[in-house]
Amino acid sequence: MSWPRLIVGVANGLRPGGSAFRPLACTSSFSSYISFPRSHQWNKNVAEAEKLVGFPTSMMSFQNLMDNDVTSMTSHVKKLLGSGHPLLKTLKRLVYHDKNNLQVRGLMVLLICRAFSGQFVDVSDRHADTGILDRQRQLAEYLEMILSAQAIHKSVLNLPNLHDGRDVQGKDDLLELEYGNKIAILGGDYLLAQACVGLANLRNTYISEMISVAIADFTQSEFLGRRDIQGRFIPDPSHITQESWVIRNTLAYGNLMSQGCKSVMLLADMDPQSQELACRLGHNLSLALQAYSELEPFLEETISPREILDLSAAPVLFHLQEDPELLHEVQHPEDNNTENLNTKKILNAIMAKRVGLDRTQDLINIYVQEALEGIQKLPNGQNESGKSAKNLLEEFVAFLRA
Amino acid sequence: MVGGASSVVAPWTPVSVDTPKLVKEEGEEKEPEISTGGSSMMFFRLYTQILRQTQVVEATMSVLGGVRAASTTGMVSTLHHRPATHSHHNHLEARSHVETLPGNHDANELVHADLEAMFKEIHEELDFELKSNEELRTASGQLGISKDRLLGSLGQMAKYYFDGQGKAVRPVIAMTLGHAYNHHQCMNQEEKTETANRQRKVAIISEMIHTASLVHDDILDHAETRRGKLAVNQKWDATRSVLCGDYVLAIGAKVLAQLRNEEVLKVLAQVLADLVHGEFQQLQNKENETERFNLYLNKTFNKTASLIAYTCKANAILAKASPDLVEEAFKYGKNVGIAFQLVDDLLDFESSSQLLGKPAAADLKLGLATAPVLFASTEFPELETLIKRRFSQSRDVERAFEFVQKSKGLLQTRDLAKQHCDAAVQAIEPLVESPYKSALINLTDKVLIRQK
C-alpha cells in the first residue's frame, strides 16, 4: 500500500472515542503543527518558493521513515489503524498538512540560503541553478526530521501497567495503544538518529553542538508548567503571560530554527554578521509561524471543539488572563485529566470575548514586524526571474499579519 | 558537587549475603584490591579475613576450567566495595604500583579514577543545560520560580540512573582500551593525560547514549525495575520518560560535538542509528532458521556491540593510532560486545532473578528468542511454533524455558561467546604489553564468567 493511500486509511480508521481508555482527540501534542488554511495564495507561494530553492519539500523525511526496509513503519502503522492512538493523528497531520505547514520551516531556511547565495564563500557543493549548497539542503531536511521526531514523541501516552497479571478493563484496546507507544518511540528515535548521523556527516562540530542543544531545549520546554496525566499543558497564573509563552516556544521551536539558520550560514563560511542576521530572522519567523498556527484554528468558519483545544495555545492563555473564573476551572480538571474539561464552554468564552484572539494577533504582528526588518537586510538576489527569495519571504510573512 | 562521585564510592550492599554464591563474590571482589597494592592496613586486614574465601573461590574456578583471571565477579565494578575513605590521591598512588606489577590486572581498578571523574562530569553536563539556559534564566526571573522548580522533574529524572551504582561496563571498556592504546603510542605523560581526558569524554558519551536508550527501552518493555531501583518510567511516567531519554541523548550529543573531532563525531553518531535499527529488528519475525539466527546476531551487534565497538574505535582514533590499529580496536569492542550480550542472554536462563536484578526468562516473556532458544530449537523442533508466535500462548514461556534447560543450547551459547572473546583477545594482540592490555584480556574472561 502506498503511503498516501495508507494515510487515507489512517484517517478513515480513526475511531471517534469510545474505547475503554479514550485517547485524547486533540491536545497540546499537536501544538507543534502549523496548520494553515488551504489558502490559494499561500499554496501558490509555497509552490513558487519550492521552485526557487529547487527543493521538492513534499514528505522527504517521511519517505525516509516510511519507505524504509529497516523500520517497515508502514506495516507497523497499519496494525495501529483503529486503535485511536494519537500517533495516527500526528502522522496524518504531518503528511496531510505537509505542504502547507510544517515543511515551510525548512522552506524558509532554504529561502534565506537562496537570498544569501550570491555571497557564499564556500561553494564547493553549490547547486548550479539555485546557488544553494547541497549540505544546506540536507540540513533543512534534518531540521524537519527533528521537528517530526519531536511531534511523534509527544504523541506517546501514559498507560496503565498491562503486564503485572492484574485484570485491566478494556485490556485489548489498551494493548493496541501500547503498541502505538512503541511505534511512536521507535519512529521518533529513528528520525532523531538519522538526523544526528546526517549532521555528523556535515563535518562541522559546531553545527552538531548547536542543534543538539536545541533538541535539549525542546525537551525542557515540555517540562515547563503544570501537566495533566497525559503530560498535557495545564495553564496556571504564571504560565498564561506572553513572556512565558515566548520562553516556552523559544525553547520548543525558536532555538531549533534560529540555530538551523545560523548553521546554514556557517556551512557557506559566511561572516558573523550574516550568521547573526539569519539567526535572528529564524527566531522571529519561527515564533510568528507558531503563534499563527495557534490562532489559525479559531479563524476557521466551523470549529470542532475536539479538534482544536490545545490549552497551551496563545489564544487560550491570553483569554484566561482576563477570565479568572475559567482559569480556576481549567487549573483543576477532574482526575487531573484535561479531557474532562468542558471544551465547548472554553471555546465559546474565547470566541465571545475575542481578547485572546486579538492579543495573539498582536503577538504575531510583533514577530512579523521583526521578521520583516530582518528580511529587508537580506542581500538582493541575483539573476532571478520573477520574485526573489526576499520577495517571497516577505509575502509569506505578510500573510501572517492581520 | 552533585553527589556523583560520592555515590560512586558508597558501599554497596549485596542483596543477600547469606547465599554462598554472594559470599564468594564478595571475597573475590576484594581480592584485586590487594593486588593493586592498596597499602593501607585496612586492606591487609581485609585480605587476611577473606583469604580463605578467596582460596575456595580459586578452587571453584579451576573446576570451571580455562579461566585466566582470578576474579569471577565479571563486570561487577569493584569500586562499589571501596571504603569511602579511599581518596582520589590514594588511587593514583595505587595505579603507579599497578603499572609495575605483572599479570592479573583488573579494568575496573585501573580506570577507577576515570569513572569517579566521569559520573561527576555527567551530572555537571546534565545540570549545565538546565542552569545556564538563557531562556530558563529569564523565565525564572520573570515568573519568580526558582530554576530548579521551573522544570519540575527533568533534572532529577535525567540524573536518576547516573548514580554510580550501575556496572558502567561501557565506560570501563572504553577507558581501559584508551589507556592501552595511549601506552602503545608511546606518549609522554603530558600527552597521555591530555588524551585520556578526551577519551573520558567518549566514555561519558557511551554511558549517556546507553542510558538514554535504556530509558526508552524500559518504556517499550514495561520494565518495573532497573539497576536495583524503580525504573524511570514507573517512578515518573511514559510521556516524561520519552522526553527525558531525548534530553540525555541530546546532552550526550552535545558533549560529543564539543570534542571537536569530526571523525569521532561521525563514528559515534552511527551508534544511534544502529541502536534504533536493532530495536526495529527486534520487532521482526523471520520464518527461516538460518535467517533467524543471522538476524539475532545482527540485532545483537546493533543493540549492544555497536556502542562498545565504536567507542573503542573512537578512543583509538583519539590516541592517534594507525588505521589498522583503529580497526583492531573496533574488532575488540565488537567481539567483547557480542560476547557480553550472548552471556546476558544466557544468564536470562541461568541466573536467579534476584542476582540479575530482573525476572528470569524476561526475554521469553517479551516474545524474544535469543541464542539459547535458537540453538535449542535445532534439537527440539517443537520450539519452532513457540518462537513463531513469540511465546504468546499460555505456558509457552514455561515450556520454552524447559526445552532450553534440557538442550545443549546454553552450552553452545557459551561456546559462541567464548569464540568471540578469543577473537577480541586476538584483535589487541599487536599492542605492546601494559597493565591495561592485560586488563583488556582479563576482561574477556570476566565477560564469560560473570553471574550478573
From TrEMBL, chain A:
InterPro entries: Isoprenoid_synthase_dom_sf (IPR008949), Polyprenyl_synt (IPR000092). It comes from the Eukaryota. GO terms for molecular function: prenyltransferase activity. CDD domains: Trans_IPPS. GO terms for biological process: isoprenoid biosynthetic process; pheromone biosynthetic process; ubiquinone biosynthetic process. Keywords: Transferase. GO terms for cellular component: mitochondrion; transferase complex. The keyword Transport does not apply. Belongs to the FPP/GGPP synthase family. This is Decaprenyl-diphosphate synthase subunit 2.
TrEMBL record, chain B:
This is Uncharacterized protein. PROSITE patterns: POLYPRENYL_SYNTHASE_1, POLYPRENYL_SYNTHASE_2. Keywords: Isoprene biosynthesis, Magnesium, Metal-binding, Transferase. The keyword Transport does not apply. SUPFAM superfamilies: Terpenoid synthases. Belongs to the FPP/GGPP synthase family. InterPro entries: Isoprenoid_synthase_dom_sf (IPR008949), Polyprenyl_synt (IPR000092), Polyprenyl_synt_CS (IPR033749). One of its GO terms (cellular component) is mitochondrion. It comes from Tigriopus californicus. Its cofactor is Mg(2+). It comes from the Eukaryota. GO terms for molecular function: metal ion binding; prenyltransferase activity.
